[in-house]
Amino acid sequence: MTAMSRTPSTRPRRIRPRARVLLAAIASLAALPMGPAVAADGPAPRASASPPGSTLHLSNGGFARGELRPSGPPATIRWQAAALVDPLDFDLPSVNAVHFPAPEKLPRPDAEYCFELAGGDVLFGGLAALDGGEAVLDVPRVGRLRVRRSAIARMYRWKSGGDLVYLGPNGLDGWKQTAQGKTWKEEQGQPVTDQEGAAIRGDLQLPARSSVEFELSWKTKPDFILALGVGDDEKSVQRAFRFEVWERDLIIQRETEQEADVASVGEIAPGQGRVHLTAYLDQEKGRILVFSPDGKQLADLKVAGAQPQVLGAVSLVNKRGDVRLERIRVGRWNGEPPKPVEGDRSRIHQVDGSILYGQVARLDAASRSFVVGAGKDESRIPEGKIAAVFLSRPEGAGDRKLAAVYQDGGRFSGELDAIEASTLRLRVPGIEGAVTLPLAGLRSLVSLQPRAVPASVGGVAGILELDDLRLPGRLVDGKERPGASCLAWRPQGSAGASALRPGVAGRIVYREAPAQRPATARTAPAPPPGPGGVVAGFLNALGGTPQSSSSGGKRKSLYLRSGDVIPSEVTSIDENGVRFKTSMSASTFVPNEKVKAVELAIPGDFPIKVTKSKRERLLTLPRMQKENPPTHLIRSRNGDFIRGRVVGMDSKVLHLELRLEPRDIPRDRIGLIVWLHPEDARPKPEDAKPKADAGANPAPAAGPPPPAPASAAAPPSTAGTRVQAVCNDGIRLTFVAESFAGTAIAGKSGVLGPCNVDLKEVDELLIGGGIEKAAASLAYQQYRLVDAVEPKASQGTASDPSAGATGTEGSLVGKPAPDFELALLDGTKFSPAQHRGSVLVLDFWATWCGPCIQAMPQVEKVADEFKDRGVKLVAVNLQEEPKQIKALLERQKLHPAVALDRDGAVAEKYAANAIPQTVIIDREGKVARLFIGGGPHFDVMLREALRSVVGEAPAAPVSK
């Protein structure tokens, strides 16, 4: 079809920048010939036909890393996936491509000629003979080939690739996707996309003067930008010569800081089409010439920049619709404008730039010269003077189903006969007989006629996802055997099935399961703590009337560390484990080391949302509790939490040990119990953020705990394949699979005993280590203790006590101080807002923090010096009981006002991630200074800071 048209001209009319609407006034354009439109589209070890690291890509989006195996049936790819026991045979139409690992530096062919054949094939080799019917080519590693003359589009002297820089695109290899996500895909070895804004960039090493031949195609209305000579930044794309589609016109434009201009290349016909052009680019002079395939000049644009740059990359952006990069060839150009040619005539281009038209009759092998014409009009041109030979328009591409693309740019395409241990046999249209090609040096095997593969017949369709493969398909009947799992997978497009190797980790997805949420998103306010601290507050909350609500279909469940969710009614808890009743099994007991949580009320009856910050405070373990950490987190039905140790539970009472004191709580007031296993605890972070200054002790660190190591929940290695069925009703069941038949997997659970799961009720089937990986992301698995960070050694010296600490570096400095209200140790209330007009000193501390105890006497002494100038000191204690606070103050003979930050919320507002932290708030209520740490000479820094804040001149330096 005709994709573009324009009037013939030696110099195109220029179009002023941004005046795109004027393109509609371009004079009637003559037809520009274009290419054809794009159509809408353990057994015994076996010898490997490919190197390790090869990947098979299927037309349905599946892939598998592994090895190409020798195969007998024609049009078949036999593939050995690393995670599967047996090789699989895939029909060629179900395959998209096989990609082999490429060396760091691609080889360049050492050949006399490069031959471009019909169908896009490229051969490198020598020309042994040429007559009116065929050419005889000597191709290294392939041998002598007899090629029909009509199948040769052109041949040019290669001279070890001296003039050719790049020939591709060779799929997406060497191209970087610059838009977010992978918006480009590879089809038939060509990058293609239908995503708006999708962009790729390839460093093709364009010389300063280069020729760039390219073919682009589309199925709908085109809207793309092809930029030549770009770098890594977007500004270089804006300054490059750019082919763009404006309405129905293809234009070439460039815009620099000094100049801008546009020229029309031709008209784009509506709908499906393609464009084939050659651009001659001189980056140093800022000039580009554009020619059609038959040698007609279409555009000549010169826009020079102030400082010419030579950039080697090419960028392609799909603004809307779709676009495919079919071909791009980069060569060196001598800077001389190409001479006009008659593209439909046979001709010879000579190295001196001259063109000789006429029928190329033959190659005289004796004199190594080309004979043009016949009889009296015969002329001979020595081979050494030849640059390129155009014989005729090539014949049609023929039926080609597979292309073999080599690392050096060579390409053969045709019908696949067979793949052997080190070779493949291909029947290439236009070449006599089957061509035997080496597998060594292959870059890709590309299926040229891939098609959608119908869904699997029978069974339950799913997607097998392992570390190195993703294969749509289905499970087929199988039983455990030595070296193979009872789970056998038959991918779509495969003639057979293969068992999974023992020990593989992954999942089979039947339906994406929704994220599990053990509580609804609605927030219910928790009662404030009353006299006696958080323990009393928790117990007071339990005294309220339990909420009642409909279950909404929810049910109480038992949660295991492996991720299992078992609907059950807990009957009792003791030092050995949990006893329960469930309709799923006759089993009634699970040991404590396997339990993660139990719901004692229907989740809808305690709709409490736990914020991230609240959870972090609940799970931070103070230093003083490290020797006797809590083992359980208990949540009341009214929403309060407390940490302690569950001693036991019967039908009426939960027996707790809270701070070494026994407590009995009515069972019907408890909604949830979470087990805090010591081996799951996250160790203290090595560094606190923000970084502490001298003498700082990092406070409990924020941030969600990382996933527990797989070993924390994984059982010892056993025979059989361990799986976890994630059912569509929320049940999760882990068991060792023993057999599969029809749609059911039979096996044995370590908790429930013998079990049978129907895949029709399953969203996901997790396999091996994939069970622990999935379990780590579940809601209750996130409840793990985090050690508070140990104190850091004090720093600072007597000779330079204030080195590096001015108190002005913090992100809070200069901003309004966060307001709060806390109870003081004497029972009164404190809020910074009530003391506007005074200068406040907030000292965040804890009794377990050595640097805090060292700094506090200094802080109290300095604050007392400024007492008559409106300075007030409040020591904010982090999450400790009044009894232990008073005991320390008495021992240290300290008398500050102490505010009780019982849950660490105020410390979070002030980003007190490392203590001691001392904050000075000025009379306007803004943070004036913030110090992290202390040290033996902290009083010097604090004194100078207070002088500045209250408006006093700094102290005179002491003479040495």
UniProtKB/TrEMBL annotation:
UniProt biased composition (Low complexity): 40-54
InterPro entries: Redoxin, Thioredoxin-like_sf, Thioredoxin_domain, Thioredoxin_ResA/DsbE_sf
PROSITE patterns the record matches: THIOREDOXIN_2
Region (Disordered): 40-70, 681-717
Top-level taxon: Bacteria
Database matches in CDD domains: TlpA_like_family
Signal peptide span: 1-39
GO molecular function, one term: oxidoreductase activity
Keywords: Signal
A Pfam family assignment: Redoxin
Residues annotated as domain Thioredoxin: 811-951
Listed Basic and acidic residues bias regions: 681-692
SUPFAM superfamilies for the chain: Thioredoxin-like
Official protein name in the record: Thiol-disulfide oxidoreductase ResA
Provenance organism: Aquisphaera giovannonii
The organism's taxonomic lineage, starting at the top: Bacteria, Pseudomonadati, Planctomycetota, Planctomycetia, Isosphaerales
